[in-house]
Write a structure and sequence with these properties.
Layout (H helix, E strand, L loop, with lengths): L1 E5 L11 E6 L2 E2 L1 H7 L5 H7 L10 E5 L6 E6 L8 H15 L6 E4 L11 H16 L18 E5 L5 H26 L7 H15 L2 E5 L1 H6 L3 H7 L7 E8 L8 E5 L1 E5 L19 H16 L4 E11 L11 E3 L5 E3 L7 H15 L4 E6 L4 H6 L4 E5 L2 H14 L3 E3 L17 E2 L8 H7 L8 E5 L10
Parallel strand pairs: 1-7, 2-5, 2-6, 6-7, 10-12, 10-15, 11-12, 14-18, 15-19, 16-17
Antiparallel strand pairs: 2-3, 4-5, 8-9, 9-12, 13-14, 16-19
């Protein structure tokens, strides 16, 4: 879908469909302006009670003249429109559009005030909603479904003074959506296709497309660096492990990077501590953290941001064979710290630990953020829509929460409860990898030492990574 701006008055606009706001049963300014040219058809439909009051309810009204259709979208009955209500309205609008025969559409939802959010934010929300609705994963089908109906272009109505800013934000939204689609594609691919080698090849493709520095460490290089944990997790599989490093130097090659470390377990059987069959098919998404950090670099490169950011993806398959690592094994990480393995299904923290230590000791990181589908306990604590956030500094936690709120991706800060640290004790190693799971906290506490004194945050995305399958 193509995104543009529209600065003409609503009643003077020619379009296949105008998206207009209704609040508490009252049409907004754009709806009233269009209705004045449509003999009151919009007001009549509202008066009949055809549009439900709940935020996100929609009603399509056929018109004659320059505006062929009006899509009425309810913003609810609250005194103020919340970000949540606006997002629901935007998503409902693009879903309803797909059922029409309109070739183009113009949205005037931005006329609604949403707290302190400006026209740029409202444009971004609408564009991302449209791209989300348009996403299809059909790469594995021999026959693709017919393309859905709906407009090929969406214009965001705005004042002339806002047009340049809104247009710039639409370009940002498209770059973000491209990155999101990339991450979704990786997460949807089956484990027999999306292997560690495949992930490495995708990273190399990004490197060629955006002239990024890409390095892929093989088994011998990992052995030299003493990445014993990543190698141990991988040893039960015929698929070779990869340590993938993608550098975007938008702030110049001398700028120390923010490093994003993403868990890249391309399929997780649980190893010898094998998972139950129910839900195992979802374990192809256990590399969602790795996909997310690659997508973040993808978006940064598309937008030519003036930042230095590096994605690190420790990638492996956790399989079961005669060569699998075992409970009671002791593995040695980059930097020398050791872990007693109590559960081979707690492999994510093992590979992330090597990734974090490698980023700190070898890549000159200034800030570390890891992203992982780490513990099912987070689903119980926060549900499937909210990611758990652990951080060693308030500044980093606040920055991530602000960014998440701007993106419409809720996170909730969890405590790094030091009273649980003793649960990590091992009689034969520096720590154990499965001391129990009080809300997922011990997994974060396990990772913390590998970040050293650097500002570090852990995002547990176990719920959001699989929310689409609910």
């Amino acid at each position: 879908m193509q995104f543009t701006t529209k600065t003409s008055a609503p009643e003077k606009t020619r379009t296949g469909c105008a998206i207009v706001a209704v609040r508490s049963g009252k049409p907004g300014a754009a709806a009233r302006a269009i209705d004045a040219q449509a003999d009151g058809a919009i007001a009549a439909a509202i008066a009949r009670g055809d549009l439900a009051a709940k935020a996100g309810s929609t009603l399509l009204v056929g018109l004659s003249g320059g505006v062929e259709r009006a899509l009425l979208v309810s913003l609810g009955e609250e005194a103020e429109v919340s970000e949540k209500a606006f997002g629901e309205a935007a998503r409902a609008a693009v879903r309803a559009l797909a059922a029409t025969g309109a070739k183009d559409a113009v949205s005037w939802l931005g006329e609604v005030e949403v707290g302190a959010r400006d026209a740029r934010w409202k444009a971004r929300v609408q564009a991302l909603a449209a791209r989300e609705a348009a996403y299809r994963f059909e790469r594995m089908k021999s026959r693709r479904e017919a393309a859905p109906r709906g407009p090929q272009s969406l214009a965001i109505g705005c004042d002339r003074a806002q047009a340049a800013g809104v247009a710039a934000e639409l370009r940002v939204a498209e770059a973000i959506a491209d990155g999101m689609d990339f991450a979704k594609d990786l997460g949807n691919l089956p484990g027999n296709v999306c292997t560690p080698t495949f992930l490495a090849d995708e990273a190399k493709r990004l490197g060629k497309e955006f002239k990024l520095k890409v390095e892929v460490l093989d088994r011998k290089q990992m052995e030299a660096l003493k990445m014993g944990a990543l190698l141990a997790v991988a040893q039960g599989s015929e698929e070779p492990p990869k340590m993938i490093v993608v550098r975007y130097d938008g702030a110049g090659p001398k700028q120390a990077p923010i490093v994003l470390v993403g868990k890249g377990i391309t399929f997780d059987t649980g190893g010898i501590s094998i998972k139950p069959n129910d839900g195992m098919r979802e374990m192809k998404t256990d590399m969602a953290g790795g996909a997310a950090v690659l997508a973040a670099v993808d978006a940064a490169a598309r937008l030519e941001l003036t930042v230095a950011v590096t994605a690190v993806v420790p990638a492996a398959e956790n399989a079961v064979s005669g060569s699998s690592y075992r409970p009671a094994d002791v593995v040695r990480h980059v930097g020398g710290r050791t872990t007693e393995v109590l559960n081979t299904d707690a492999e994510g923290r093992l590979v992330l630990a090597d990734g974090l230590a490698y980023a700190r000791l070898e890549l000159g990181a200034t800030v570390l953020v890891d992203v992982a589908t780490l513990t099912g306990a987070m689903n119980i604590a926060l549900g499937t829509k909210t990611a758990g956030l652990y951080a060693t500094t308030d500044g980093l936690a606040d920055a991530l929460r602000t960014a998440a709120a701007h993106a419409g991706e809720p996170v909730w800060r969890m405590p790094l409860a030091e009273e649980y640290t003793d649960l990590l004790d091992s009689p034969i190693a520096d720590a154990n990898n499965a001391p129990g799971n009080p809300g997922g906290t011990t997994a974060a506490l396990f990772l913390k030492p590998f970040a050293g004194d650097l500002p570090w945050a852990h995002l547990n995305v176990a719920g959001p990574a699989r929310a689409g399958s609910d």
